[in-house]
Amino acid sequence: MSEKSGDLTQLRREYVAEGLMRSDMAADPVEQFSTWFDIACQARPDDASSMTLATASKTGMPSARIVLLKHFDADGFAWYTDYESNKGKELAENPQAELMFYWYGLERQIRIQGRVEKLDPAKGEAYFHARPLGSQLSAAISHQSAPVDSREELEARVEALSQRCGDQVERPERWGGYRLVPQRFEFWQGRENRLHDRFCYTLTADGWTLTRLQP
């Protein structure tokens, strides 16, 4: 087999983190998430909020991309984007999604499944104007996921809008926030010999139930 064949079967990595026991897990998965998130922020504050957002069209075709978590609480996990982007269109067709956080240095990941809803426009308005001016300009001129002839065209639009409105950028109506309301969490801790620790929280009529899963 040639060196450029892409055969990765001999690529190995060992997980050496401490184990995860049921007694380590909080009764509330949002509290457990907050604990792990705080640790991730200490380890890599510049990347802890990066998460994979997986959506699917009404036909079931999945797609995934990295977005940034902007706030979370007992009501859900929120991010901001263009409602007319590919992910926005898919969420309009199928308002169910999964978030996935992976923190390499900690050998941990968290998956969160649930339904997605739009945030109140006032939250989008407040966050939009809290962003750096350059980010506001980029969001205002870009119809995310739509084709464009060149980067120069985008830069020209930014410059034109900057000249026209200065530092008073109007939030486009197509731009705002989403919140995933969780129905299932999975906390994964890498362990030696691939005998990983996995715990699943599932929402029932009586509250959250916690189950250990096989690796």
UniProtKB/TrEMBL annotation:
<feature type="binding site">
    <location>
        <begin position="65"/>
        <end position="70"/>
    </location>
    <ligand>
        <name>FMN</name>
    </ligand>
</feature>
<feature type="binding site">
    <location>
        <position position="188"/>
    </location>
    <ligand>
        <name>FMN</name>
    </ligand>
</feature>
<feature type="binding site">
    <location>
        <position position="135"/>
    </location>
    <ligand>
        <name>substrate</name>
    </ligand>
</feature>
<dbReference type="InterPro" id="IPR011576">
    <property type="entry name" value="Pyridox_Oxase_N"/>
</dbReference>
<comment type="pathway">
    <text>Cofactor metabolism; pyridoxal 5'-phosphate salvage; pyridoxal 5'-phosphate from pyridoxine 5'-phosphate: step 1/1.</text>
</comment>
<dbReference type="InterPro" id="IPR019576">
    <property type="entry name" value="Pyridoxamine_oxidase_dimer_C"/>
</dbReference>
<feature type="binding site">
    <location>
        <position position="131"/>
    </location>
    <ligand>
        <name>substrate</name>
    </ligand>
</feature>
<feature type="binding site">
    <location>
        <position position="87"/>
    </location>
    <ligand>
        <name>FMN</name>
    </ligand>
</feature>
<feature type="binding site">
    <location>
        <begin position="144"/>
        <end position="145"/>
    </location>
    <ligand>
        <name>FMN</name>
    </ligand>
</feature>
<comment type="pathway">
    <text>Cofactor metabolism; pyridoxal 5'-phosphate salvage; pyridoxal 5'-phosphate from pyridoxamine 5'-phosphate: step 1/1.</text>
</comment>
<dbReference type="GO" id="GO:0008615">
    <property type="term" value="P:pyridoxine biosynthetic process"/>
</dbReference>
<feature type="domain" description="Pyridoxamine 5'-phosphate oxidase N-terminal">
    <location>
        <begin position="40"/>
        <end position="165"/>
    </location>
</feature>
<keyword id="KW-0288">FMN</keyword>
<dbReference type="GO" id="GO:0004733">
    <property type="term" value="F:pyridoxamine phosphate oxidase activity"/>
</dbReference>
<dbReference type="InterPro" id="IPR000659">
    <property type="entry name" value="Pyridox_Oxase"/>
</dbReference>
<feature type="binding site">
    <location>
        <position position="127"/>
    </location>
    <ligand>
        <name>substrate</name>
    </ligand>
</feature>
<keyword id="KW-0560">Oxidoreductase</keyword>
<feature type="binding site">
    <location>
        <position position="109"/>
    </location>
    <ligand>
        <name>FMN</name>
    </ligand>
</feature>
<feature type="binding site">
    <location>
        <begin position="80"/>
        <end position="81"/>
    </location>
    <ligand>
        <name>FMN</name>
    </ligand>
</feature>
<dbReference type="InterPro" id="IPR012349">
    <property type="entry name" value="Split_barrel_FMN-bd"/>
</dbReference>
<feature type="binding site">
    <location>
        <position position="198"/>
    </location>
    <ligand>
        <name>FMN</name>
    </ligand>
</feature>
<protein>
    <recommendedName>
        <fullName>Pyridoxine/pyridoxamine 5'-phosphate oxidase</fullName>
        <ecNumber>1.4.3.5</ecNumber>
    </recommendedName>
</protein>
<feature type="binding site">
    <location>
        <begin position="194"/>
        <end position="196"/>
    </location>
    <ligand>
        <name>substrate</name>
    </ligand>
</feature>
<comment type="subunit">
    <text>Homodimer.</text>
</comment>
<comment type="function">
    <text>Catalyzes the oxidation of either pyridoxine 5'-phosphate (PNP) or pyridoxamine 5'-phosphate (PMP) into pyridoxal 5'-phosphate (PLP).</text>
</comment>
<dbReference type="GO" id="GO:0010181">
    <property type="term" value="F:FMN binding"/>
</dbReference>
<keyword id="KW-0285">Flavoprotein</keyword>
<feature type="binding site">
    <location>
        <position position="70"/>
    </location>
    <ligand>
        <name>substrate</name>
    </ligand>
</feature>
<dbReference type="Pfam" id="PF10590">
    <property type="entry name" value="PNP_phzG_C"/>
</dbReference>
<keyword id="KW-0664">Pyridoxine biosynthesis</keyword>
<comment type="similarity">
    <text>Belongs to the pyridoxamine 5'-phosphate oxidase family.</text>
</comment>
<feature type="domain" description="Pyridoxine 5'-phosphate oxidase dimerisation C-terminal">
    <location>
        <begin position="175"/>
        <end position="215"/>
    </location>
</feature>
<dbReference type="Pfam" id="PF01243">
    <property type="entry name" value="PNPOx_N"/>
</dbReference>
<feature type="binding site">
    <location>
        <begin position="12"/>
        <end position="15"/>
    </location>
    <ligand>
        <name>substrate</name>
    </ligand>
</feature>
<dbReference type="InterPro" id="IPR019740">
    <property type="entry name" value="Pyridox_Oxase_CS"/>
</dbReference>
